[in-house]
Structures are given as C-alpha cells and as structure tokens.
C-alpha cells in the first residue's frame, strides 16, 4: 500500500509540474537558506580548527572598570602581568594561555610590502589550541626563557615570503619591522573569524615590541582557560572570580578612578555576544528575539506555501476522492494517502536542499571570501529543519485532506 501511495504521489507531481515546482522550490529554498545560515553560525561559534576545544574553554577578553555610579567606565584587554597573576595561577584549569589579539606589522620581499597580522603568545598557546604543523614545531618554554627571536608562520605567509617552492623553510630568516627572526614552525592558518587564533605570524611573548613587562592592570593581552572536562567549566569560572575578588577596591588606573571591577571568563558564544552587546541584558534579549523571529519566519515560509498549494491540489482531486469513497474507501485510508504524499514531497525538497547547500558551501570555502573557511553542514540542524518542514507539511496536508475526505460522495463527484 505504501508503495502504491508513493507511486500515486509521483504521478501527481508529474501531472502538475507548476504546482510541483512551487512546492519543491518553497521547501528546498527555505531549507537551503536555513542550512547555509546555520553552517556559517556554526563556523563562527562551533568547535573547529584550530579551536577544537571550545566546548571546554573559557575566554577572558576584557576588563571593565566603572565608577561607583556606573556612569563612567574604562574597558579593554589586560596586561600580561595581570593575567599571569590572576589566570595562570588557577589550580582547577588544565592549562591557561595568554596571548594578544591581532596586531599589525609589515614585511618586505624586495620592494613588495606584505601586510601581516601578528600575535604574541606563551608556550601553552600551542597546547590549548590544535594547530596543524606542516613543518617544524612550536616554540617552547626554553625558547621563551632564552628570549629566542623565533617565529611560527602560516603556510600562506610562507608562500608570499618564500615563494611556492616545496623546500622546507625551517631555520630560515624572516625580517619583520627591521627585526630578524628564525622560522621554527609552519602551521595551517586559522580563519579570520576566529580572532583568538587568527594570525600570519606568531611570536613568543618575550619577542621585541610585545610590551609583556608593562606594569598595571591594562594592556593588550587576553586569555583562554582550558578546563579538564566540560563539566569543570563552572568550577574554573568560580576559582577565577575568587581571584578577581581579591583585587582591592576602589583603585586608580591611568588616572581613572574606579570602584567596580569586572573581568569575566565565559564560553566563546557568551563572550562574543556579551562583547557585541556591551554587556547590556536588554539588548541581548532583543537580539535573541530577533534571531528567533527570523528563524520562525524562515520555517513558516514552507508552511504557508504548502497550505496554499495543497488546498488547490486536493480540491482539484475532489472527483478522485468521490470515486474512491463510492468504492468504499474509508476516511482513514484517504487521510493516509495525502499524508504519505506530503512526506514524499517534503523529503524530495530536503534532498534538493541538501545538494544545493553542499554546492553553496563549497563555493564559499573555495572562493577566498573567508581565508581558511571551513563551512560544513551541521547534520543535527539539517535533520531538525527537515523535521519541522515535515510537521508543517503534514499539517498543511492533513487539514485540507480531512476536509475533502468528509465530503459527501455526490458533492465530491460534482467538483
């Protein structure tokens, strides 16, 4: 019986190409947009190369100092000394890395200038992250203790500075801002959408111009706290906040008098949204409300489309329903026929959407729009999206089918 229903559904689709096109277009377009969007969001916030441990990482991005009335404030990254004292000393964390955000430098190949994004890090940076070393190895605590002028570079910078040759560049010299460094490692780069790890050149924090010895609480450094397991995140957060609570208040920072000090350690998504919304809970609520509304509208499109198309499609099949009822077909049988037809159509649209999404993602990854882009299809999102569309499809098919199945035989045959 199921096979017969699918065959009937296929014949109906072929009989009315226009209705078929509208139905499949609505389902596949909606699912494609949704999957590409969620793929990009997953690219931004998910645990991907080289930050594959985001699910058990806490990010310390900025310090906020405010006066007692919260009318004036001063915020920004912290000093290396501050993070060493209050973050590196954590006992519940597996590892803590301190690094800068992206800085700018220049290198020259002949008369050609290469604009670089650079980053100063400690040795633990290479343990907290999971960079793929194509050549060489990372600098270690010994390199840092010796103040060795060594660097780790990306494969992209290697190509621009040394050319496209296959020869190893380990031990070779690079000149950046009139300072010579020895290449100790070459890594596959990180996308620009991951600011904690994005860079063309990585220096030990003891390299020139790092300002790691700067006194005071403010500076140019951030930190990643890596928990031993995801369930330990709250414990690490609590210990870090207990360290921050030890800082005497009120205080003075570069002439600014503050009575309130906030330094948060948060998962990446919360950290990103908190920074974007500047800690305003009202704006956060509005932001997530808008996102939910957009998602609801995206998922509502196929429902509206399917309701309209199914009403027209089923109404024109009134005579078919009348004949089947005349031969004794029960209401339940007629209902199941239209339900299975809708399931079949929805899965066809989902299959088309999956193919379209794969093509679009590959085009984005290969276009160079986002360096080192690694967008992938989130299988869970695809299945949930397909399930929601299927529910909408069932509702939009069941209601008209129920109405038609209850028609009297004479009325149905006249239609």
UniProtKB/TrEMBL annotation:
Keyword terms of this UniProt record: Cell membrane, Membrane, Transmembrane, Transmembrane helix
Cell location: Cell membrane
InterPro entries per record: ABC3_permease_C, MacB_PCD, Macrolide_Exporter_MacB
A single MF term (Gene Ontology): transmembrane transporter activity
Source taxon at top rank: Bacteria
Membrane topology: Multi-pass membrane protein
Pfam families found in the cross-reference section: FtsX, MacB_PCD
Membrane-spanning parts: 21-41, 286-307, 342-365, 377-399
Entry protein name: FtsX-like permease family protein
Span of domain ABC3 transporter permease C-terminal: 293-408
Residue ranges of domain MacB-like periplasmic core in the record: 20-241
PANTHER family: ABC-TYPE MACROLIDE FAMILY EXPORT SYSTEM PERMEASE COMPONENT 2, MEMBRANE COMPONENT OF TRANSPORTER-RELATED
Originating organism: Larkinella rosea
Gene Ontology cellular-component terms listed: plasma membrane
């Amino acid at each position: 019986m199921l096979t017969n229903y699918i065959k009937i559904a296929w014949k109906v689709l072929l009989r009315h190409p226009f209705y078929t096109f509208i139905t499949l277009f609505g389902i596949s377009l909606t699912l494609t947009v949704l999957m590409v969007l969620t793929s990009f969001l997953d690219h931004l916030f998910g645990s991907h190369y080289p930050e594959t441990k985001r699910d058990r990482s806490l990010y310390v991005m900025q310090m906020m100092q405010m006066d007692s009335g919260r009318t004036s404030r001063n915020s920004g990254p912290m000093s290396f000394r501050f993070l060493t004292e209050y973050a590196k000393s954590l006992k519940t964390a597996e590892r803590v890395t301190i690094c800068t955000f992206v800085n700018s430098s220049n290198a020259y190949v002949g008369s050609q200038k290469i604009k670089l994004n650079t980053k100063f890090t400690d040795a633990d940076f290479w343990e907290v992250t999971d960079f793929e070393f194509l050549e060489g190895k990372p600098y270690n605590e010994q390199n840092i203790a010796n103040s060795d002028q060594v660097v780790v570079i990306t494969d992209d910078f290697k190509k621009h500075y040394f050319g496209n040759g296959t020869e190893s560049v380990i031990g070779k010299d690079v000149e950046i801002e009139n300072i010579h460094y020895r290449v100790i490692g070459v890594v596959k780069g990180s996308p620009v959408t991951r600011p904690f790890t994005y860079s063309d050149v990585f220096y030990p924090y003891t390299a020139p111009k790092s300002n790691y010895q700067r006194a005071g609480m403010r500076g140019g450094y951030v930190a990643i706290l890596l928990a031993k397991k995801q369930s330990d995140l709250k414990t690490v957060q609590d210990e870090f906040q207990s360290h921050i609570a030890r800082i005497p208040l009120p205080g003075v920072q570069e002439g600014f008098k503050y009575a309130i000090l906030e330094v948060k350690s948060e998962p990446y998504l919360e950290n990103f949204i908190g920074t974007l919304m500047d800690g305003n809970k009202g704006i956060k609520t509005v932001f997530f409300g808008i996102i939910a509304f957009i998602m609801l509208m995206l998922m509502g499109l196929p429902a509206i489309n399917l309701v309209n198309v199914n009403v027209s499609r089923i109404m024109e099949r009134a005579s078919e329903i009348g004949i089947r009822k005349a031969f004794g077909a029960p209401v339940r049988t007629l209902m199941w026929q239209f339900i299975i037809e809708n399931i079949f159509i929805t899965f066809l649209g989902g299959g088309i959407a999956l193919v379209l999404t794969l093509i679009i993602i590959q085009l984005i990854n290969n276009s160079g729009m986002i360096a080192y882009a690694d967008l992938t299809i989130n299988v869970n999102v695809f299945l949930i999206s397909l399930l929601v569309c299927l529910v909408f499809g069932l509702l939009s098919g069941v209601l008209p089918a129920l109405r038609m199945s209850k028609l009297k035989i004479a009325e149905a045959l006249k239609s």
